[in-house]
Design goal:
The chain has 104 residues and is mainly beta. The protein is built from one helix and seven strands. The strands form two sheets. It has a four-stranded mixed beta sheet with strand order 1-2-4-5, covered by helices on one side. Strands 3-6-7 form a three-stranded mixed beta sheet, with no helix packed on it. The N and C termini lie far apart (55 Å).
Length: 104
């Protein structure tokens, strides 16, 4: 019998991804936010947090979210990405397949 052993890959290092309604950047720094769909696509590892800026987001397609993903809304980019206490400051609207409104 031949046994082949491969050690497990090193754990991925996942931090925060920064998102704004009009983001076009890479999302890995506060100064380079991305959009929500790109952020979810980047969330391929566990223990990731997506920090969403205040605003309205529209998602037209079903989402496939990884396990242990945290999505937080209500961050103010102009205030060093501090979280506001205003309820409903970040809104996600899903359209097409499942119309609903989510406040985070």
């Amino acid at each position: 019998a031949i046994i082949t052993y491969s050690p497990p890959p090193p754990p991925q290092v996942c931090n925060n991804i920064y998102v704004t309604p009009t983001g076009t950047g890479g999302g890995l720094s506060q100064n380079d936010p991305t959009d929500i769909l790109t952020a979810i696509g980047l969330a391929q590892c566990n223990n990731l947090t997506i920090k969403m800026a205040i605003g309205n987001y529209v998602i037209d397609n079903p989402l496939q979210l990884s396990s242990l993903l945290t999505i937080e809304g209500g961050f103010e980019p102009s205030n060093n990405w501090r979280k506001t206490s205003t309820a409903g400051a970040t809104t996600i609207r899903r359209t097409n397949l499942n119309l609903s409104l989510i406040h985070i």
